[in-house]
Amino acid sequence: MQLTFLGTGTSQGVPVIGCNCPVCQSADPRDRRTRCSALVETQGRTLLIDAGPDMRTQMLREGVADLDAVLLTHEHMDHLAGMDDLRSFSFLHEPPRPIPIYGAPRTLDAVRRVYAYAFSGSQYPGMPQFELHAIGQEVFTAADVQVRPVEVLHKWMPVHGFRIGDLTYITDAKTIDEAEKRKIMGSRVLVVNALRKEPHISHFNLAEALALIEEVAPDRAFLTHISHLMGHHAWVELPPGVELAYDGLKVML
């Protein structure tokens, strides 16, 4: 299995528009973060986790040739605003193949609302084609790959993390119920959001993310959904086995 971090930034990305802070002006490419997204390649399949507004750039940067399914964590725009560009993957096939999309019912409702033209029944050429699959708390299969959803809370909003084999990917979490934590125990690789060092109302800060990592005790852990307020990538001190992810980082499991 290979995990590629397509984007590791928070909703504004880094640099932030109009910001002149040292991180946003940094020459270190690891301090340039597009919106949070990841690619999982396993069992000959390619799964995309979230399709934010930078998806097209991310796909081109990594040379992604095709997608088998998309897993959506939740309905915020930094996680689904790039879905129109999924049509390029549909048009790789003849006839065009709808892209399977997996998400909670409320997330799929947002997809239908934001991309209403794709569900209008119109045969206008070039429209994206989505095949929506509602998920709950049970293990589901996406493109022949078993996926275990892990529910976290983004303040009060439910968000889905995903466990695929020995990998667990969690973003936009502020709290995790003990029953959901048990689903991720034994993960060899844990990815979790860490917005900044100071507390935040709806995201883990660095200390909270590190506390979860210590509890789960994976072999390796990576922090994502990072804002410019975390500080320079090179200056963030972390325990052994924990790393700040950066755009384009590839991890083999």
What does this structure look like?
The chain has a single domain (2-12, 19-245), classed as Metallo-beta-lactamase, Chain A (4-Layer Sandwich). Helices cover 17% and strands 28% of the residues. It has six helices and 14 strands. The strands form two sheets. Strands 6-5-4-3-2-1-14 form a seven-stranded mixed beta sheet. β9 (157-164) and β10 form a beta hairpin. The longest helix has 11 residues, at 206-216. The radius of gyration is 17 Å and the shape is globular.
Summed up, what is this model?
Helix content is 17%, strand content 28%. The chain is α/β, with parallel strands linked by helices and 253 residues long.
What Rg do the Cα atoms give? 17 Å
Helix content: 10-25%
The arrangement of helices and strands along the chain is EEEHEHHEHEEEEEHEHEEE
Helix/sheet category? alpha/beta
CATH architecture: 4-Layer Sandwich
Largest sheet: number of strands, sense, barrel closure: 7 strands, mixed
Per the CATH scheme, the topology name is: Metallo-beta-lactamase, Chain A
Low-confidence stretches: none
How many E-type strands?
14
Spatially, the strands of the biggest sheet line up as 6-5-4-3-2-1-14
SS strand fraction: 25-35%
Integer tally of domains: 1
The mean pLDDT is 97
CATH class: Alpha Beta
